[in-house]
Amino acid sequence: MNTEIPDAKITAFREAVYSNYEKEKRSFPWRTNTNPWGILVSEFMLQQTQTDRVIDYWNQWMEKWPSARLLHEASMEDVLKAWSGLGYNRRCYNLKDCARRIVKDHGGEVPKNHIDLEQLSGVGPYTAHAVPCFAYNIPTVFIETNIRAAVLHFFFKDKEGVRDKELFPVLRAALDHKDPRTWYWALMDYGFALKKLIPNPNRRSAHYTRQSPFEGSFRQYRGAVLRVLAQEGPAGMMELQRRSGIESDVDLYRVIVSLEKDQMVAESAGVYRIRER
Q1: What is the pTM of this model?
Q2: Strands (E), the chain
Q3: Catalytic positions, please?
C-alpha cells in the first residue's frame, strides 16, 4: 500500500472507530485504573489469553501485589499459585523478573520509555509501546490482533498476505496525539466488534496462524508440573509423575529438562522444586 494515505480515508476511519466506541465500548478494570504497574500486569496476562479470562486474575493479583516492589518480595511459589490456570507460565516468571528489575533499576516505577521497557524480561516491541500509551497517555505506534483486524478491514479489504509493516503507516497517520490512550481503546474495541460480525480480517494477514490444541500438548504437561510443585511443594520424579498425571516417563523427563533449561525448576538430590527469581 502506498504510504500516502488520503486524509478523507483517515478521517472516515477515525469516525468509524470512535462511533463504534460510543456505542460498544468495553469496560475492564485496567481501563478504570491506569496505574502503570497494573497496566504492565494486564499486558502480561493478556498475551495469548482471552480478555474475559484475565479480569478476575488481574483483580486478585492487584489486591495481593499492587506494586512491583511487593511482587518482587513475594515467593515464586506464591506467585505461581496466583497465576495457576492462566497458562503460558513463562509469562509469570518474566513478570516476577520485571518486578525485580523495576525495583532495582527504576526505583519501583514502571519506565515511560520504550527503550527501557524492552530491557525487561518478556517485554517485546508491542508491550514496550503499549505500556507508555495506556499507563502515561504517551502517543506511540503499536499493533496487536484487534488493531490488526481493524486496519485490515478498513484499508486492505481485497488483499491477502498483508504484512504488519504495511499497516504501520496507517496507524501513524490515524493516531490521536491528544488522547492516544482512548484512541487505542476505541481501535481495539472496533477490531473486536468486527470479528463478531464478519469473517476474521486477520486471516488476510501474513502473520496469521491458528493456535495448536492445548489438550495433551507439551505445554499442558509443563503447566501441570509447575502447578503441582507450586501448590503441593517439592517432589521426586516418581512422586511428581503421580501428582501431575503424566503417564509417560519420556514426556515427564522432557518436561523436567525443559523447565530446568528455562530456569523455572531446580533439582537437588533428586528432588525438584520451584526455582526462585
Answers
A1: 0.85
A2: 235-236, 265-268, 271-274
A3: 43
